[in-house]
Give the backbone structure.
Amino acid sequence: MTVAEAAGKSGALERYEAVIGIEIHCQLKTVSKMFCGCSTEIDGAAPNSHCCPVCLGLPGVLPTINKTAVEFVIATGFAIEATIAQTTRWDRKNYFYPDLPKGYQISQYQLPLAANGRLTFGTSDGPFTVCVRRAHLEEDTGRLIHAELGGRRVSLIDFNRSGMPLMEIVTEPDIRTAEQARRYAEELRLLMRTIGASDAEMENGQMRVEANVSIRPRGREAFGTRVEVKNMNSMRAVERAIAFEIERQAVAVDAGETIHMETRGWDEARQSTYHMRPKEEENDYRYFPEPDLPPLLTSPEWLAEIKARLPELPAAVRTRYQDELGLSSYDSMVLVGDPAAKALFEGALAAGTGVPAKLVANWVAGEYMRLAKGETGAAGSVDPAELAALVKLVADGAISGTNAKEVLAEHYTSGAPVAAIIESRGFRQISDAGALGTAIDAVLAANPAAVADYKAGKGAAVGFLVGQVMRATRGQANAAMVGAALRERLDKAD
Ligand SMILES: [Zn+2]
């Protein structure tokens, strides 16, 4: 068991309450950068191939605002029920670092585009709501690459990322557990993808999650000293890093140690956080209004236009699935959380075979997701109409559920029609009463002891007899029909 897995198991969470705030940076999915015309297609591009005088911060250049980036932040603001600023402005955040050629970053300080929002999502303890303090726009920095060149350790700079549009979303310190933190980040990622604002892939830095974590004895109001945790490259890492950090702080406080303000990184290999740098005070960035850009005004017409373009949001879809289609909250969560699963589910319903949505949902959230997660090691896809046909055959008792799973797995990898697979594998169930009757009579004749047991009041003997019929028909009999027919015959014989 790793330390992170041990977190919460030592009783730390019984004595201490964790206070967690999350900051997320999302790279917005625009065609050009935040303040210049450079392309944002920088993945895998040669270093410094996507730069111009503006994003290199050369003297005498002027930034221009990317309208789409602004619209993405406003759309996000609407999606989290935030207040959208009527007037906002840009500020210069000043600091020196080699990856920031201008010596300042254009950001939004006092007047963020969106403020006071909230996001509700499911957890193992039920729905949880986090208040979102603000969402604002800024530009990304360049990237330092530390390498060895000709036997010397050097630091190289790639400015392709410089000026990429970033949205920063900051929560209030409302989160209390590592699981809530992970679910919040997952819900926000889903929202970004639904709106189309960001691909939000954590692995390649399109979505960067940072957590401020502190603990306090249960029942106390005052916050403890907070520690910033970075470098979490997956949702699993977010949960584990925070769980580890809560545990680390609890052990330290129990031992009489003082928690220091610091930035810690997550070490995936060791499954622990490590000290990166101390954080003595809030940095003084000497913010001041960006003189090269006018204030940004958001007209009611423009806002209405952005709002009208919003797609149906994940929370609304989940509610619709539960209220109108009768799905469980678990199935709704799984389907809405995975765009391919959602498309398959809706496509199968649209195929119009008349099978209940709940049955289709079971198959998508269960078998399909198992296949899609690669648990069988194969890649493939499921045709919605074929899935609908398969579920209908199971519902009608034409094939068994067990066989249907094999059919789906084969369809997933080969793409062959469901009907052809059933035919070639001889999976069609015997639901014909006459054919079943012959098999049942044979089994009854061959098992007089079980028949006697049943008549002596041992109802369980039916299960044995059903099993014998299934064996005799090589699993092709409709088990429910066999059970009913057996009971009918046995009771009649009295
Ligand atoms: Zn540029």
Summary: The pocket of zinc ion is lined by residues 33, 36, 38, 51-52, 54-55, 163 (CB under 6 Å). The first helix runs from residue 3 to 6.
